[in-house]
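Backbones bend. Our protein:
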Amino acid sequence: MARNLKTVEIKLPFSGFYESLYSGAIDSQEESFVEYRATEEGDDSELNWPEELRIEASDLASILFDVTDYSAAYDKLARAYVDAFSQLAGDGLGISAPEQVKFYDWEAKGYKTRREIVSSLRLTFADMSSPREYNFGTDRIFANIPVSVVRKLWAIVKADSFDTLTRVAKERHSSRDGFISGYRSDWRDWGALADWDHNQLETLLIAACEVERFDWEDSDLAIYYATTESESDYQAWESAVDWARFDEKRNEKRVELMRDWLESDPEAARAWIGNNGELSDSLILNNADEFAEFDLAGIAYRCPLTPDLFAGN
């Protein structure tokens, strides 16, 4: 930790995204989107298409899976997690700082900011790393923390005569079966506080939380709700989807269904093409090469009020 830096990097306590509430929130947003497109009325609903051309929910889900960068979604949630942890841990540890708070001014009919003293560790997102496989590791979130806050954490553990810090350091940094520690188990051997790295500072943070009886694991649900408030989970998921690629792959599936229909029941398929100009044009004209073999040019418009004239009824 260089002495002239105003902030240093710290690893935050975090249980990871794998099969967690956070990954569940992303999955829920994805499932809601698929259910809405497959079963609800709307401008881009599958219900606008005849049954033969409707893409099933399972296929929509498969397409979404292929075009979604889940690491990008988790990265956005990690940023929100840092803010949530900063606030709740600040409240639990009794650490506050002046911050610019946004509020709505009804007289001015617009948003303004004002400076308030709020509970906060004043953390800012630094980085997130994820393992290639989750067998032996999990996601790690790093934040920047002001040196002044590190000193407050130190004051908290000092007031406990460093007993909690000594125990936590021993628990976290003692080698055992299946784990080789890269640190000495006695924090007194770590050198000056100014030289501690992100793992050692995490140990300091966890010890301070225990001294002040802020159980971050017990508060995990509160941190989760604070992380996902204001639709942060939706924004994280939505921004991680390649929507252009989604439309492209969905169109490919629709073309496949249209070709199958033209082969299995050409009369009904052609009747639909002639009777549904806007939808059929978006499919047939935009994918002309895919349907060249079916000679669909010049199909006459069919009146929807007289289906018996062309559908064999």
Remarks:
- Residues 52 and 261 are 7 Å apart (CA to CA).
- Strands lie at 7-11, 96-105, 110-119, 124-129, 140-146.
- The longest helix spans residues 70-93.
- The chain has eleven helices and five strands.
